Give the backbone structure.
Amino acid sequence: MIQIVTSIRSLLLGMGIFLAGSGLLGTLLGLRAGEEGFSEAVIGLIMSAFFIGYILGSYFCPKLIRRVGHIRTFAAMAAISCVVALLHGLFVDPYVWWVLRIINGISILGLYMVIESWLNEQITHYRGQIFGIYMTVSLLALGAGQFLIVAYGPNELASFALVAILFAIGLLPIALTRTAQPTPIATDSLSLKTLFKKAPVGAAGALISGLVTGTFWGMSAVFAHALGMSNNLIATFIALSILGGALLQWPLGKLSDNRDRRWVLSWIALAGAGAVLLFPLLGSVSITAFMAAALLYGGFSFSLYSISVAQTHDRLSEGQVLEGTRGLLMLNGIGASIGPMMTGLVMQLLGSHGFPVMLAATLVGLVIFIQWRMRVDRPVPEAERGEFVLVTRTSAVAADLDPRTHPEQELDLEVPPK
């Protein structure tokens, strides 16, 4: 396995640098929008635009890659990302930012597709372990990127320049790699109607997971700023939530292997709702307790998607797993594009309290749906349940990285490639 990790180290390094810049940009925009006096509803629309770009990119980027190749696509998307980052700082206008966020969503999705295509081409053994390393690098990079906000603050053009620098540096390890270009991308998926029919709880979990995580990425900095937190505390708040997701996803997922996953999803959603409702209560009492609640909330909310994927896989045939995973990614993206808009409107009406109220209401809604489905659907027999695997919510190509979509390769874990 060491040989495989060594062969993809440049891809992992480039991806990590890109994600640090992307994570910084999202937080930076939320804080700067608040400083400029943008309303919560407008901020929600701006943040939703990024995920709209994600959805559009899932249609446009595969065609572009097939037309001009992976390397040219990657260089073009990296250049666009750099330019867009700087334009955010040069033109502080909600209409301009909305358009730029859509373009940024398309370009970042294109970068994901290229990198994950390369990774998928290189990984033929130890797929589960490498997939876990990729997830770890992604989460650590997103968390580390938050703290770069303290370098210059949200009001300086230098902060946007720092994002552009990270995007440019992230290009270097990929552009200089000697790894051969991967094969063309295919992104077919099961229809969403079929997904909901075969695995209603898994599909709903993917959608609601997108709603809450999209809301968190888009509006958490706005919420924390409204509570009067410093830039350093805001970065810590977001980073701890990401860390919670990294720490709790695996144990909660393995817990779901031994029982009806719908029960586990239901309790996780309920626990997440309880944790997020503590935010406004603890914010003015104890910053330590507030950060502990953030850690727990991140652990519960970030776990929803992976367990929803596992629940869906339990109800699909082996030949449907890959396309089903791609469909879940689309549902997750749809939810993420809606969440910030809805939350921005609620925060416009209720103030900063609208953030935890919206998240809690969404999670409780999922609990109610799951409880209803448990009354009308039988659980998946224990013998038919697969093993939990951490998954990432990036591009449709990421579905190919899931070891469950390549069971024939997982049968030979002890034999390294020659």
Observations:
- Residues 2-173+188-406 form a domain with the Growth Hormone; Chain: A; fold (CATH 1.20.1250.20).
- The chain has a mean pLDDT of 85.
